[in-house]
């Protein structure tokens, strides 16, 4: 009898897991509760819908860990990366995508695959038998979350994830704003002008910080704590850490020249990135926020060039649940207490679209190997995939475990290379060369 792989959740991780297993010849059922059961962040019932940024971040596979992860996923015939490449937008060296066509294509590819079917219903319990991958992401439903909590015996771990606002391009005042990527990064003129920049002088910056600190914010419910992930801090939380924090973060003025006043150096700069292929929508880079809607419009319209901004979507904040994976999952991403169940994606304690999809890729291949009776070689720790999965399944300190982006700090040192900033370029190139080699070998061992 054919064994079926059930995948709960049709986001980045679930979609990639389904694709990988199906391509290996396994019959897959994706269980997706949307659109029957909605979340506040999702707008459609599409698989692979992007709900926060539209960026997959750096695409540099020689000097950046997330760019290396892109390379490894492409080498593994990854659905998410192939679809992102097909719907790429100019982003100055980053990989940004047109979010709606991206999700539509992911959905079309999966539903057309002969080994994939989709069941639109909510799974509320952990099954006692079968082959399962739970890739329900940061917005795992409350009922299922309770079932996971009951099984793991651990208190729910959560932080708050914030979403950046999106603005209609036609409402931006281009007599004040200009198009330029930081340090003119990119190989084409389109890449070098991928970001829209709004400058502030010192007085404007100080008034903006005052308004940000005084704005009405979303209140937390009883029992919830604001344990934010540092890679996705709301702007007002950054401002509370010091008045200059934003100026050294998402509002840093470096690498930019004001096209309208080239001799005047901005004190701070707000950047916006194209959010769709038509160029009609822009999201404010790094401006996740928990301000209430009325306060958001008032404060954000203080930014020069955005005085008459019209918002396609205001920012928001939500609870983001994840497992204490170092204590709960084995090296094959299986739940130790129920090894017929794997977890993948953000719920395992990785952060970001790319990292979530990467863990889905591994879980899908591991589950397929098990169903097909194949040996599954250990994922090489010196690859980006291996460094990340090793971190979440045992390399991290369980007592202080928090969501993690892929980064070179997770990689084992390369013998003979010096540390420090001066040796960083050579060190990163050595990391990526080594990773590509061992990852290619692993793909050869695991087979198509």
TrEMBL record:
It is found in: Cytoplasm. The keyword Secreted does not apply. It holds the Pfam family GIDA. It comes from the Bacteria. Its main location: cytoplasm. Its cofactor is FAD. FAD binds at residues 9-14. PROSITE patterns: GIDA_2. Its EC number is 2.1.1.74. Keywords: Cytoplasm, FAD, Flavoprotein, Methyltransferase, NAD, NADP, Transferase, tRNA processing. It catalyses: uridine(54) in tRNA + (6R)-5,10-methylene-5,6,7,8-tetrahydrofolate + NADPH + H(+) = 5-methyluridine(54) in tRNA + (6S)-5,6,7,8-tetrahydrofolate + NADP(+); uridine(54) in tRNA + (6R)-5,10-methylene-5,6,7,8-tetrahydrofolate + NADH + H(+) = 5-methyluridine(54) in tRNA + (6S)-5,6,7,8-tetrahydrofolate + NAD(+). Residues 6-374 form the MnmG N-terminal domain. It is an enzyme of class 2 (transferase). Belongs to the MnmG family. TrmFO subfamily. NAD-binding protein involved in the addition of a carboxymethylaminomethyl (cmnm) group at the wobble position (U34) of certain tRNAs, forming tRNA-cmnm(5)s(2)U34. This is Methylenetetrahydrofolate--tRNA-(uracil-5-)-methyltransferase TrmFO. The gene is trmFO.
